[in-house]
Each structure stands twice: as C-alpha cells, then as structure tokens.
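Entries read chain and fold; for instance:
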Amino acid sequence: MSVSPQSDGREIRLVPNVPVGTKLVADRVRDVIDACIHTDSPAADLEAAAQLIEQATQLLRKRSRDTSLQVTRSNGGISINNAIEGPCNPVAPPLTDLAYVDGETSGCVTFPTAAEGPPGRAHGGLVAAVLDHALGRAVAWTVAAAMTVSITVDYRAATPLHQPLCVTARVVSVDGRKVFAEAEIRYDGQITAVAKAIMIVVAGLPSIAPTAVSLD
C-alpha cells in the first residue's frame, strides 16, 4: 500500500484490490436505496427499518478516513469511491468492466431505479455523467489525465433502466494541452446518446496511459 498527495492536500491511498467488505456494504446500500424507492410498507415497518439503518450507519462511522481509495491496476488506477465507476460508492451505478483496447475505452453500465428520469428511463443528467466519465478515462488512458471544459450530449433515444448498456469513448485529436474526444452509449446495438468533449490536460497529475500516444 502506498500514499500520494492530491493538489488539495488530501491523500490517495493505493491498494492492490477493491476492499471486499466495503464493496459488499455498498452493494447492500444500493439494495436499500432500491427498496426505499419501491416500498409501500406501513409506518411501523418504515420506522423499524430507519432505526436499523441508523444502527448500521453508526457502526460504519466507528472508523473513518479522509483518503480517497484507489485501486492500482496495470491499465490505470480505478477510483474505488468515484461517483460513476466506484464499486464501493453506493451512489455509483457503477460503470464496470472498463478496458482500453486499440485506442478505445469501453465499459458497461446498468442504470438502477434511483437513476430514473422519465418513467422507466435513465435521467439525462446521469447519462451525461457516465459519458463524461468515459471520455475522461479515454483521454487519461490515451494521452494524460485531463479535466472537462466543454461537453455536448446528443440524446438520440431513451436510455432504459435495468438493462445492460455498452459505453465506448475515444480520443479524436490533440492540440497542445487541448484534447478532443467522443463517446456513446448503446442499448442492444442502438445508440441512445452521443457526447463530444474538449478536455484540458492537467499538469502534475500522474499519467495512467498504458501506451500514451501523440495525435497532433
């Protein structure tokens, strides 16, 4: 295990694997969120459930940390607590099976009920967030770590809940520190949303590009 500082003074702790226990808790919390949305239980049961959740919360808070855990992998660190890909963040869908092959980043996501916008469909803002994250991964793996300065999303069809979706992203061109990238989400082969972004490479951040290439 190693620790490295972030620009804001906090520390990133690098660990070899996703903490199994923390991931298990996050998975169960996702179940609780889903149950909370769908429940029609009587008040007494809801009060009892709230008390159990409070007990679990206090148990988890017995030991806490300020570091952002990150997994060390050959193709770049995966942020355990990230809002989009974090397996230990119960708010994350999460975006899984991230891979970088032949210049393209790919991953899978299934939006839960908590991501609902229109009935039975994923909220457009969350669709955009997943695309933005995939774009960031593509740029980081192809060029270097970068920040989004502009993103445009074209919604071509409704993105369903509870269905496996394919997310792909790639770098289109590089102009100095400015990187242009594009991404899309597909359901059953059909594109539901497309994004184009401009990102700026951030000096000082560690590169996670397996085989960084220059496209200028």
